[in-house]
Design goal:
By secondary structure, the protein is α+β, with helices and mostly antiparallel strands. Helix content is 28%, strand content 36%. The chain has a single domain (21-211), classed as Heat Shock Protein 90, CATH 3.30.565.40. It contains four helices and eight strands, in the order αββαβββααβββ. The two termini are 40 Å apart.
Length: 218
């Protein structure tokens, strides 16, 4: 009987800890220098959620891939140094979700301009899965996100002089995979330079206004 009561007390003590577990993250930094250039990565180390270890493994794999990419470029590098900087922003962390927007800035070689690319990742903080945007919306949200609607948003932004689209751009052929959630839970799609607009447009960011309906059940 005493053992049963002890076990019950332990379980009751753990319940508040689980209920108030909160998403946390620290910034880790990795730097590598070479005669051909440098590589710097800043990335989050996640804690406080059940899938922290699984999420961290996926983030570290992404950093490793960027490291390998610059090392490969160094092997065939021109005389000018090549540098790569990897950074991140936590854009959403609620409803069992963690959304991150990573930026990769590259400079050097034959072109001295800084080229910045972006890629968004969204994780389920319970099971650690990287989610597609389709996983986050209900039927109404899926119908609202379509090629015609995104094309209209892109053209409205161009008319407001927020960026420039290629003259030959008329319509999106595919809905992009690259997305992230803003702090309101709204889905944003991103288009890197040269996809639908020139270098001067930078990363083109489209807010769909469609709010995630995800609660951790799939």
């Amino acid at each position: 009987m005493k053992k049963l009561l002890t076990s019950l007390i332990v379980c009751l003590c753990l319940i508040p800890q689980l209920a108030f577990a909160e998403l946390q993250y620290d910034t880790k930094e990795f730097t590598m220098d070479s005669k051909q250039g440098s590589f710097t990565a800043k990335y989050p180390f996640v804690s406080g959620v059940p899938a922290a270890a699984a999420i961290n493994r996926q983030i570290q794999l992404l950093v490793s891939q960027e490291k390998q990419a610059i090392e490969k470029e160094w092997q065939t590098a021109p005389t000018e140094p090549l540098t790569r900087e990897f950074d991140y922003e936590v854009t959403y962390g609620d409803n069992n979700l963690l959304s991150l927007n990573f930026s990769i800035s590259m400079q050097g070689g034959d072109d001295d301009r800084v080229l910045t690319l972006a890629t968004g990742w969204t994780f389920d903080t319970i099971n650690g899965q990287a989610l597609r945007w389709q996983d986050l919306v209900d039927a109404k949200g899926k119908s609202a996100i379509n090629k015609d609607a995104l094309t209209l948003l892109l053209k409205k932004g161009a008319r407001r002089n927020e960026y420039v689209l290629y003259d030959e751009f008329t319509k999106l052929m595919d809905i992009p995979d690259d997305y992230y959630l803003d702090n309101n839970g709204s889905i944003h799609f991103q288009f890197n330079p040269y996809l639908i607009g020139p270098y001067s447009s930078g990363v083109i960011d489209i807010d769909t206004g469609v709010i995630t309906a995800y609660k951790g059940e799939r």
